[in-house]
Amino acid sequence: MQTPTLFALLLLLILVAYGTGFSRAVGAARSRGGIRSLASLPSYYGVHTALWCGLPALVILGFWLVFDDAIIRTLVMGGLSDKPGSVSGQNLLYAQIQNLAAGNLVGESTPQLVAAAAHLTSLRQSGQWLQTALILILATGLGAFALLQISPEMRAREKVEKVLRAILLICACAAIFTTVGILLSVLFESLRFFQSVPVTEFLFGLHWSPQMALRADQVGSSGAFGAVPLFTGTLMVSAIAMFVAVPVGLMSAIYLAEYAGNRVRAFAKPLIEILAGVPTVVYGFFAALTVAPFVRDVAQSIGLEASSESALAAGLVMGVMIIPFVSSLSDDVINAVPQSLRDGALGLGSTKSETVRKVVIPAALPGIVGGVLLAVSRAIGETMIVVMAAGLAANLTANPLESVTTVTVQIVTLLVGDQEFDSPKTLAAFALGLMLFISTLVLNFIALHVVKKYREQYD
Question: Which of 107, 133, 146, 121 is nearest to 24 (CA)?
């Protein structure tokens, strides 16, 4: 049985287990005078039975999907008498065996490959049958065991809540371990990069040209890894975007929350949030085909030199893209301010504008800061608009009319091509990622400080 079919059947068994547990609890209570005789509500008995039926089976199925291919590959490759010594050669050989088993390999094949493909097909079929039998036996057996345990005295709610608490704890730990794993993977690769390139050169170097040659006698074999042009380009584009997004988004949120009528709000708020659903590539086309030529023409009309790809064009369009983040989050936070604060300020003689400026905005400031920092993170991580509107040139400049590039654009550029993974050019992407991680961490610390300070004042 295929895995999707088995998963659907398992979900059906879970629903049947819930209904059976619910009905058995109701039947047991009926002989004792009603549901009040049960230690828990009948729904908890149903959930308890469903958890016993589905949770262990889902865990086994998940582990099976993770390790099945690795085990089959080990068995297939272990049965080969003649196989390459390198990892890349073994990967290529196993890909040929897979293609032969699927009927996609064109041409003559050696008897060894044919035997290995037959072995692979046999292992996959046996694995599917074993997987189906194990999952179904486990689900039905544990479901029946849980069903037999149901009695009016069983405290099903406590057992269900313990399992749910354990699941929530596992999910929380998974998020933490994922973050730690990402950090460690980026950190280890960054340390390998810094073994080849000094940290001082990377942080304070003024020239970025990571083109590493494949042979030592080629031109440009040393490369240059000064990341200051990337940092300045990222800050410039992000700053321009925030100069557009923060005032427009915050003012629109204040208007919609405090001044607009219900009809205007019902029309304007969804219209602003539509901007968040536009793909970034569409913004990139708009920036490259419309905004960038317009910025260049306006600059030339007043006697300024402007590139066809500029930081100003990318920042303006990126700011428009970020407006919904600031506006929507700020609007929700402002609406969450208690009405009693507004009534108290108005009762003391404050005008509507004074109430908004001196009471509502300070009370909502922690949430507004969070929305702004989310917008900053979105601006720093944007790639497509910068590629299409600002270019790929790592220029160290303070002129927004010139072409610049950002850290994220260079990460994408470094990870494509024919360069070896162990080369400084490729490892530089991890060092840039580490800098982004540190920048985000600093922004989070600032946000926590601001939120803590004003939350104590206005709670």
Answer: 146
